[in-house]
Amino acid sequence: MSDVAPQQAPSDGMPSRSAAFEARLKKRYAAERRFKLTGLVAVLFSVLVLAFLLVTMTINGVGGFQRTELAVPIDFTEAGLTGDPATLSGPDATQLLEAQGLASVVEFYAEESLGANASAELNGNAWREVATAIIADPAILRTKQTFWLPSSADLAAGYEGEGSAELQALATDLAEQGKIDKRFDIGFLTRSDATDPQAVGIWGALKGSMLTMLVTLLMAFPIGVMAALYLEEYAPKNRWTDIIEVSINNLAAVPSIIFGLLGLAVFLTIFPNFRSAPLIGGMTLALMTMPVIVISGRNAIKAVPPSIRDGALAVGASPVQVVFHHVLPLALPGILTGTIIGMARALGETAPLLMIGMRAFVATPPDGLTSPATVLPVQIFLWSDEIDRGFVERTSAAIIVLLIFLLLMNGLAIYLRNKFEKKW
Amino acid sequence: MVTVIHPNLDQTDAKMNASDVSVFYGDKMAIDNVSIEIPTKYVTAFIGPSGCGKSTFLRTLNRMNDTIPTARVEGTITLDGDDIYRSKMDVVQLRARVGMVFQKPNPFPKSIYDNIAYGPKIHGIAQGKEELDNIVEVSLKRAGLWEEVKDRLTDSGTALSGGQQQRLCIARAIAVDPEVILMDEPCSALDPIATAKIEELIAELSGRYAIVIVTHSMQQAARVSERTAFFHLGKMVEYGRTSDIFTNPVEQRTQDYITGRYG
Amino acid sequence: MSPAILLLLAVGLGLAGWLAARARAWAFRRESSDGRLASLPTYHAWYVALWVVLPLAAFITLWSFASPYLVTQSVLATPAAAELPAFGIQRESILREAQSVASGSASAVFNPQSEAFVEPFRDALARYNLIGLLATLVIGFAGGAWAFLRLRPDFSARTRVEKIVMSLLLIASLVAILTTFGIVASLIFETIRFFGMVNPIDFLFGAHWAPDPMANPDNPDPTRYGAIPLFWGTIYIGAIIAMIVAIPLGLMSAIYLTQYADPKVRSWLKPALEILAGVPTVVYGYFAALTVAPFVRDLALSMGISNASSESALAAGLVMGVMIIPFVSSMADDSIAAVPQSMRDGSLAMGATTSETIKRVLVPAALPGIVAGIMLAISRAIGETMIVVMAASTAANLSANPLEAMTTATVQIVKLLTGEGSFDHPATLSAFAIGFVLFLVTLGLNFIALRVVKRFREAYE
Ligand SMILES: Nc1ncnc2c1ncn2[C@@H]1O[C@H](COP(=O)(O)OP(=O)(O)OP(=O)(O)O)[C@@H](O)[C@H]1O
Ligand SMILES: [Mg+2]
């Protein structure tokens, strides 16, 4: 080792320091910087698209949580309506009020305060909201109250500065008097589909989504987990297992619309009466979600160290006990993560549900697994097809609700993944 | 080629008896025609160069080889005269009687208590909570771990030190009241102090259980075992009293191995 | 009786069996000399419970199919049924209305004709509910009793229970095969029916696509069923335009994230990509239709291209490309990560810059994986539905101009199957033929890609 000379300062004679090399090096570094920059730009592009998407949806969607309303002061003391908590608590309370002419009372006060032109632009079902308020608190029948009631869709458009010139003028007029306003519309979250953008809500679709997801979860989770356990822990290496594996891997990549065709051709043939039902939708989505759960489940099961299985076997646990006492509990967080991701995907899925008829106009929330329903993404699709300007904002608002659910689910999945990452 | 059995073996009851055992992984032979008696009251050591099949043979004794799909065993192995490879054999019962401790400590990611209690629970050994508590305490005491963990039985077993974990695994094996304990290099992942503790423990346990230990350390074999079997290339070359094997081995290969000339 | 209630009953009976068997096993245990049983009491309990619940589950499933049919049949056997229209929607709705009144889910009938059937339905429902209930009880008790009587101190309940569990696991894993089989069978069946009406040659090689759901189904015009324009549209949008966007951006993102970004930045950017991957396609579709498509058209118009469509292939393809970016990126990420670190180190140690290492060593080494990822991405893009349904056209158009309107296979499937067309019409059936072609193509792509990925992984393991 004595022949190693002490490191000398780079002399000009060294080949690596030739001018040509220097120049080339400079070029190479420039290329390096450009390449890195390209990568950064590529990533930022995606981030920007995401940001743009979210911002557009939010800006549009905020309007969707609001609606244009007109101020209607009603003096119940002279309206001649009667009612007490006892009569107004029954199921027929609304009819009772209708029979007493609540609709014309509302119309009368609207005309008095807003004028004939504007009161004609009051939403046809506005009186129902007054009825709801009375039923909630019959005491207001002895008072004077100002109600903010939905306007017609046309006037709403006018207030936005669109549509016919007269209505735009009317809206400006009313606005000057402070009698028209865009107000937060809590009813958007509690009502169902309607033809009038002023009267729509997403509760029906949301409930349909929940019921559908319930069916999907109840079917896909147990079957998926059991299949994953079988394939990972017990399956002998043979042809059959290979076929199962190939099927699962391919199913995970089959276009979702094909599952819709399956649901249409098989499930709807077996249950022709359950068109549009969450049961069928859930079953179709379950077939789509199951492979996702199997694949992530197998990865989670694979991650459980074999030494734990050996330890359990060596004290005399049977293979089934090893799996259910040791492997499954340890793999469960991973399986759950995969399940949530699969469920999130199913929640956002539209195409297969169109195939099995969940695109029908359903104005009441489904009351069971077999009643006609629609789901949130399909509702978004249906609204996006509406020509009425009011639906644009409503669509964005529905998208926001859907995205919030998806973000929550994905957030939960990421949380689980981080919390339970390899403890052993 | 036959195994050399040292002539002056004292007569003792055999707990397990292997005759003409061969093990294959697929087509590859890993154990070639081994016959051996595992005495009831003694510690038996398996020594030999890496890859000679010690672990393989050890795992045939409680059928842990069943977990390897390609593994196949020929010959007969008996436990108290019962063929453990007969078709009616309940492997679960067998493993309760023939426990095993592994090279790397592998406590369950559960509490210390549950680690020990798991075996008795699945075998229905304890009649109630008190008896179970008692089993846990006795097992931990026998494994020399009680004093160190008695105040934190609910802590995770994986939170212990390596040596403690290995003693926990020994306690876990003891808890199901086995007749034989197989140990595959139980100290190879431990420091000298922990190793000394385990060796002490083996000495205490011998007599109560038949113990078979695989080790790469001649000193350890000499210290803890009464009997030693030397394996080479899948064959059992020489078997006899530990003192005989170490002081006057018959086979050249044994001689070479224990003097460190080879392996 | 709704199946849910019967299932609840089954679970209740199972629980009762569970408790009884456990008590019995404990009794054995107390009586035995050494306090040991062949199996734990819990396994005796599960053995009986499974024998109660599993036969019941099978029965209830069958019953929930059979009983509505039986109820309707018995109503149709009543004299009132003679008044019914022989078939058709009206008959259905009369019956259904009467049934919902009878079962209490509606309070009054609209159609006076239904009135006559309410009572028969009520009777039939009551009768079959009782039968279902009794059968449930009998089967539950029979199964439970049979299992219960087999319990002995030396009964190896654990082995039995484990056998049942194993069979259940095996059955669960067969569901995947069943699904694949179901897909193939239903597609083939309808496709064959379609090819009975329209010659496959006309379908696969014809260049004019305009099925008319209103035309006479018995005599379809084969020249309207040429699928080439939609295959072209599918490939043009999904495999060309979308990939021109997704491949470079996805690949560069993966390279930046794995090779350049420091962990902290990466921990922010990666979830952002994951969120992008999690955005439902209907949202992308809305975005495409509302924002991108008008923008593309206006841009084209402002550049003097007058025939730009507001349903241009370009807009749909661009958005689809964006949707696929995270997918390509994560596949490329995996492939690059699978390349052994030593290769990278070797190149860096020779004095190569990072980008040279990536371009000359990492990407070539990871290429099989990346190519497989791109194949999967294409398969995903051509099967994607909502973006094209919302942003592309329904009119078939064989053109290479990205600004023109084009349609895709998935758009046509949705269009043909969500209309009011009859199920026997060639226009409706052609959707299954398109679906079948789509399935085969994606299957082929996936199959090859998964094989390549597997080989590739094994090569570096
Ligand atoms: N699961 C397996 N599949 C195939 N061959 C195996 C398997 N396990 C072990 N072998 C082979 O069987 C032979 C014996 O292995 P074994 O593990 O029994 O050796 P060993 O004596 O315990 O070695 P060491 O001292 O290194 O632990 C070796 O050649 C090994 O490669
Ligand atoms: Mg070994």
UniProtKB/TrEMBL annotation, chain A:
It is found in: Cell inner membrane; Cell membrane. It comes from the Bacteria. It is a multi-pass membrane protein. InterPro entries: DUF3333, MetI-like, MetI-like_sf, Phosphate_PstA. One of its GO terms (biological process) is phosphate ion transmembrane transport. It holds the Pfam family DUF3333. One of its GO terms (cellular component) is plasma membrane. SUPFAM superfamilies: MetI-like. GO terms for molecular function: phosphate transmembrane transporter activity. Residues 206-413 form the ABC transmembrane type-1 domain. The chain crosses the membrane at residues 37-59, 210-231, 251-271, 277-301, 322-344, 397-416. Keywords: Cell membrane, Membrane, Transmembrane, Transmembrane helix, Transport. Belongs to the binding-protein-dependent transport system permease family. CysTW subfamily. This is Phosphate transport system permease protein PstA. It comes from Pontixanthobacter rizhaonensis. The gene is pstA.
